[in-house]
C-alpha cells in the first residue's frame, strides 16, 4: 500500500473548508490513486464544528481518504505534513483598522510559520489562501528559516480563473481555448490581470488588447471587484470557487503546468520584472514536480508597467507595516 500524503488544512470549519475538504478527499488534489490523510487545524471554539465535518467526510466514503486528524495546535497538526493549505485567517470585522487586521493575522501566521518550520515534512509545499494572502505568506515564510522560500506561495489563481472567465465570455470561446494570461501583484483590488500575452484559440488577443476602453473600464475592474460582486449577490464571500482555485493552484504546482501555457501564482520575487526582491507577488510561472519558475523575457508595455508597479508598491507597504509590527522573524 502507498503511504498517504499528509495534507494540512487550516480554517477547516470555515466556508472555503466546507468545499475544499471534500474535493481533496475525493482525489481532486493528488489524483485518484494517491491516498490522502487530512490534518485539520481550527481554533478551539470551532473544533466541535470540525467534528461535524469529519462525520460528513466519513459518510462520503471516499476511496482516497486514508484518515483525518483534527486539533487546535499547529505543532501537532503540521507534524509530517507534505502539503499545507493555510485558509484560516482573521476576517476584518467592524471597526477594525488595517493595522489591527495585519496584527491579528500576523499572530496567526508567525505561529503557523514556526510550527511548519519545526514539524512539517522535508518536501512541504505551502499555499496561503487566507487574506491578506500575500503578506500572510510573507510572514509565515520569514518565520520558517529552515524551509526554502520557494516552498511558500499565495493564491492568485482565483483571480486568474476569474480573468479567464471574463475573457472567454468576451471572445465567445470556452476557457480551455485561452492561454498565457497573467495576474500580477497582490491578491487585492490592485491586482493586475494582463492579457497582452494571452492567446485566444491559438491567436493573439490584439482584438481585445486594442480595445483599451473595454480593458480599462470593464475587464480589469470586473476581475478586480469580482469578490465584492459575489458578496453583494450571494450575501457571503466566494467560497466554492476559492476552494476550486486552491486545488487548481496546488495541484498544478505538484503535478506541473501544461506545455505552452503558464499559471499565475504569488511567489517570492527574485527581482524579475522590477518586482522588489523578497516580496510575495503574483507572476506568470511554469511548474514541474513541485517546483516553479517565473516566465522570463516578456515585454511589459507602459499600460502594464504602471499597474504592476502600483500593485507591488501596495505589497511593499504591507511588508513595511508588518515589519514595523516586528512580525517578520
Ligand atoms: P470563514 O470565516 O468562513 O472561515 C475561516 C475559518 O478560519 C474559521 O472557521 C476560523 O475559525 C478559522 N481560523 C481563524 N483563525 C485560525 C487559526 N489561527 N487557525 C486555524 N483556523 C483559524 O472564511 P472563508 O470564507 O472560509 O475564507 C477564509 C479566508 O480565505 C479568508 O481570509 C478570506 O478572506 C480568504 N479568501 C481568499 C481568497 C483568495 O483568492 N486568496 C478568496 C476567497 C477568500
UniProtKB/TrEMBL annotation:
The EC category is oxidoreductase
Cited Pfam families: Ldh_1_C, Ldh_1_N
Q: Which InterPro entries match?
A: L-lactate/malate_DH, Lactate/malate_DH_C, Lactate/malate_DH_N, Lactate_DH/Glyco_Ohase_4_C, Malate_DH_AS, Malate_DH_type2, NAD(P)-bd_dom_sf
**Where are the active-site residues found?**
187 (proton acceptor)
Its catalytic activity?
(S)-malate + NAD(+) = oxaloacetate + NADH + H(+)
Looking at the record, the residues that make up the Lactate/malate dehydrogenase C-terminal domain are 156-323
Q: Which residues form the Lactate/malate dehydrogenase N-terminal domain?
A: 5-148
Query: Which residues of the sequence carry a binding annotation for substrate?
Result: 92, 98, 131, 162
Say yes or no: keyword Signal present: no
List the PROSITE patterns hit by this protein, alphabetically.
Answer: MDH (PS00068)
Superkingdom of the source species: Bacteria
Signal sequence span is none
Please provide, alphabetically and separated by semicolons, the GO molecular function terms listed in this UniProt record.
L-malate dehydrogenase (NAD+) activity
- In short, the EC number is 1.1.1.37
The entry's NAD(+)-binding residues are: 11-17, 105, 112, 129-131
Q: Which GO terms describe its biological process?
A: malate metabolic process; tricarboxylic acid cycle
Q: Which UniProt keywords apply?
A: NAD, Oxidoreductase, Tricarboxylic acid cycle
As for family, the record states: Belongs to the LDH/MDH superfamily. MDH type 2 family.
Q: What does this protein do?
A: Catalyzes the reversible oxidation of malate to oxaloacetate.
Protein name as catalogued: Malate dehydrogenase
Give the organism the record lists: Kribbella albertanoniae
